[in-house]
Design a protein that fits this description.
The complex is a heterodimer of chains A (530) and B (289). By secondary structure, chain A is α+β, with helices and mostly antiparallel strands. Chain A has a domain of 259 residues: Nucleotidyltransferase, domain 5. Chain A has 19 helices and 23 strands. Chain B folds into 2 domains: 166 residues, Jelly Rolls, CATH 2.60.120; 109 residues, Arc Repressor Mutant, subunit A (Orthogonal Bundle). Helix content of chain B is 47%, strand content 17%. Chain B is built from 10 helices and 9 strands. A 5-stranded antiparallel β-sheet of chain B has the order 1-8-3-6-9, with helices on one face. The longest helix of chain B is centred in the middle third of the chain and has 27 residues. Classes of the chains: A alpha+beta (530), B alpha+beta (289). At the A-B interface, β3, α2 and α10 of A face α3, α4, α7 and α10 of B.
């Protein structure tokens, strides 16, 4: 036996018996919370999740129960600690947080929720948002806060409460997001990071304070919101019950973290100009990073803060995978006995075998109205150019292409302000090879699929690791993100798409009046909800 | 058919009727309620009926199950050309909010009867397209009654049980096949929330979704990260927390209302999930005042 072998064996023994440092990330998403454990080189070691429901007490309402979300955070965290961390004998150095943007709930002085949380998808504040958007004040608030004036923003939602639930509004001590509620439960402190604050529509992203004009519109004062702190802010106030319940050491720092859009961009490795991230999950978004905001006079982009001096800008779309799921549910299964997932797979295969451009069949995917770049809630879906030769497979292809064209219409606009050489994609749909190639062909850019599919969690990990000194800066941390799968544009396919995309753009704008007319008609004939 | 029924042998079987209609008849089939639990199967023709305010077009072998609180009929009262058969069972207890009790004649287990009732009430209305099995069973029941051979009452009762079993299974499968799992799960979650007091079992939950309990548990775990019972407990505790914070109800009342069999059981579960006993938790909220 050689000496080298013994040394190797010894090092293995050391590796497996010594305590390895790790950090935990908590990603509070729309349908589930994910607790993940990362090593000090941001390698993912394991994760656990727990889901919670979205309630729709009325068609425009989308709510979540903050108590259930908090319990689920504890559940996922406890499982992660028991199954992955203790068995691996890891030391937890810090815990970092991220969450979906735009949620808001009311709490009283004791921190008791007076309501469920309205989440980003809640549209009840439509009227408040429209009125503000059309006013000069709306433009001022958008420029100051970076958040598009839209019913999704807590600004509009709080204004809705003021108008429609004056009694609840009067009893409210603070308006906070789900992430703030979770942190409040764990520590007793009301803390909001600059990143999360930048997506409320109430926070001045240039001066890093609550924006007086926005507060006045919402009818609240700054004391009714949490204290804005840096994304790196640490709390060491974890309550002793949770220290015991989770078996953590008493002073484990909780890093406040940021919003999931900004952190997903960081977690995709994008923190400077030249690259963009593109996500297609259920909905979608395209984002770029930079030292300055994007000044768009038509208010088509969001400008959120990752941290001081790092802005994440871009456009969100309603027309993500949910549109293809709709298509698949309606036209996929030829009989009741076909499993849903199989139907989707078969449709995608059929679509793949149709040539680029779906033989001239074009689809505008606005079945849920549209956010960027149209910002038109009345927009509706359109199949255009149907001829007698088009079959179901053409429709399937046109549907996917329509979703990608919609992404491109955001991307094209972004490129007016920023150069984009490469695109990093993630999300369940964009990471499928067929979709990734399509994106590459339509955009005529190189497309990388991130190795880590949960880039928001990785983003928090990078933030926490930078905070505790494992990386010198966020830029250094972002360089460690890996993407092995790469797609190069096929110029022949791109040339096929280009004229079709032009029709897509013209049609989307030309149909404005007709969208309004048909939406008004649909509102009148809306079927009774069973 | 049209066998005279409701004699001493079949108090629970209210009617068994086969209706063949050869000309359009006005004012023969208005929207109406049924006496008991009515299972109806189209055997010929095409009907445009309104069931619970919604319009349906029905073809041969389409099956309807109508509860006494639900309405069925033609909007204008017209009886269209065609044929259909139905059987009406009058259970001991059949109300929207109460557990279904069929009666001593049925051999279905008490729990299975409850699931049947819950499923029927949750689907308003039950329409099962192309479900010929129901016609076959109704025919068998009719034959049994007609021939009145040895032990025919027993056979008829067994066949009614059989009828309910195939309907419940089909309902579950319909759920399972026509939607993707997230939607099925959402529906289940709603049912659980509507009746947290009920001592839900995994078997009941999986029957509602139309899966075997092993496959059900795996799917729930993969989708939600929870086992079915842990998911239920999570809902129960989060609802309990709301009651503790927003009302003055006693912890025992809250425990029972949320489906815990004792306040001790509630307390242990609560502590395991939240790190606090219910008493400490309530005090904590008050002290922050």
């Amino acid at each position: 036996m050689s000496v080298v072998n013994i040394a190797q064996v010894l090092s293995y023994i050391k590796y497996y018996t010594s305590n390895m440092d790790c950090i935990i990330t908590i990603n509070i998403g729309t349908t589930a919370v994910k607790a993940s454990v990362f090593g000090m080189k941001s390698q993912l070691l394991g994760s656990r999740k727990g889901s919670y429901p979205i309630f729709h007490p009325k068609p425009e309402y989308s709510e979540q129960d903050p108590e259930q979300v908090f319990l689920t955070v504890l559940y996922a965290l406890k499982n992660l600690l028991n199954d992955e961390i203790r068995t691996g004998k890891h030391n937890v150095i810090a815990i970092g947080f991220t969450a979906s943007m735009h949620s808001v709930l009311a709490v009283n002085r004791q921190g008791v929720p007076l309501s469920n949380a309205m989440i980003w998808a809640d549209n009840r504040a439509q009227r408040e948002a429209t009125e503000l958007k059309q006013s000069a004040l709306g433009k001022l608030i958008y420029d100051a806060t970076g958040t598009p004036i839209h019913p999704m923003s807590p600004l509009a939602k709080i204004a809705w409460w003021a108008r429609h639930e004056p009694s609840l509004f009067g009893r409210t001590y603070k308006f906070i997001s789900i992430k703030e509620y979770v942190l409040f439960q764990l520590t007793g402190e009301y803390l909001i990071d600059h990143s999360m604050a930048s997506s409320t529509g109430l926070f001045n992203i240039h001066r890093l304070v609550w924006e007086p004009q926005a507060l006045a519109f919402a009818g609240i004062n700054a004391n009714q919101l949490s204290e804005p702190v840096s994304v790196f802010h640490q709390s060491t106030q974890l309550k002793k019950q949770y220290v015991q319940l989770l078996g953590l050491s008493a002073n484990t720092p909780l890093v406040v973290g940021g919003n999931d859009g900004c952190l997903a961009t960081l977690g995709a490795g994008v923190i400077a100009e030249g690259a963009a991230t593109l996500t297609i999950g259920s909905s979608g978004a395209m984002r770029v990073a930079g030292k300055r905001i994007l000044q768009d006079d038509q208010q088509r982009f969001f400008n959120y803060l990752l941290t001081e001096g790092h802005y994440i800008s871009g456009g969100p779309t309603n027309s993500g995978g949910v549109v293809f799921e709709w298509f698949s549910q309606q036209f996929g299964a030829s009989s009741n006995h076909l499993d849903y997932e199989i139907a989707t797979e078969q449709l995608l295969k059929a679509a793949e075998n149709v040539q680029a451009g779906a033989e001239g069949l074009l689809f505008l995917p606005y079945i849920l109205g549209e956010r960027a770049p149209l910002w038109n809630a009345n927009a509706r879906g359109v199949y255009f150019g149907v001829n007698i030769n088009h079959e179901r497979r053409h429709f399937a292809r046109a549907t996917v292409e329509g979703i990608v064209f919609q992404m491109h219409s955001i991307g094209k606009l972004l490129q007016k302000y920023r150069s984009i050489d490469t695109i990093y994609v993630n999300g369940a749909y964009a990471s499928m090879p067929f979709w990734a190639q399509l994106l590459s062909d339509v955009f005529n850019k190189t497309v990388y699929i991130n190795d880590n599919h949960d880039s928001a969690s990785l983003g928090v990990a990078l933030l926490v690791l930078t905070n505790i000194g494992a990386y010198g800066s966020l830029s250094e941390a972002a360089k460690t993100v890996t993407s092995h799968e790469v797609y190069y544009p096929n110029t022949v396919a791109h040339d096929n798409y280009a004229p079709l995309f032009n029709i897509f753009e013209r049609l989307s704008h030309k149909l404005g009046d007709e969208f309004d007319a048909i939406a008004a008609l649909q509102e009148k004939t809306e079927p009774a909800i069973a | 058919m049209n066998t005279p029924l409701r004699n001493e042998h079949f108090l629970h079987l209210y009617e068994l009727t086969n209706l063949k209609n050869q000309t359009v008849q006005l004012a023969r089939w208005p929207v109406h309620k049924s006496v008991g639990l009515r299972v109806l199967c189209i055997t010929d023709g095409k009907f445009e009926w309104t069931i619970e305010g919604q319009k349906y077009i029905l073809y041969p072998n389409d099956v309807l199950v109508i509860c006494p609180w639900q309405t069925l009929g033609h909007q204008a009262g017209t009886l269209e050309i065609g044929a259909f058969e139905w059987l009406t069972v009058v259970p001991e207890v059949l109300e929207k909010e109460t557990d279904l009790r069929l009666g001593a004649w049925s051999n279905l287990l008490e729990g299975d009867q409850k699931i049947t009732g819950k499923l029927l009430a949750a689907h308003a209305p039950v329409v099962l397209p192309q479900f010929k099995l129901v016609h076959d069973i109704i025919l068998k029941i009719d034959n049994e009654i007609e021939r009145a051979e040895f032990a025919f009452q027993t056979r008829v009762n067994q066949l009614i049980d059989e009828l309910l079993v195939v309907i419940v299974r089909q309902l579950g499968q319909q759920q399972n096949q026509r939607r993707d799992f997230p939607q099925v799960f959402q529906k289940l979650e709603q049912l659980l929330r509507e009746d947290l007091e009920h001592p839900w079992t995994v078997e009941e939950m999986s029957a509602i979704v139309g899966l075997g309990s092993t496959a059900f548990t795996e799917k729930v775990k993969a989708f939600s990260g929870f086992s079915p019972l842990n998911y239920l407990i999570n809902i129960r505790i989060s609802e309990a927390i709301k009651l503790m914070k927003r009302t003055n109800k006693s912890l025992t009342d809250i425990a029972l209302e949320m489906g815990f069999y004792s306040s001790q059981h509630f307390s242990t579960t609560f502590k395991k999930l939240t790190g606090y006993t219910p008493g400490q938790y309530r005090k904590k909220v008050m002290n922050d005042e």
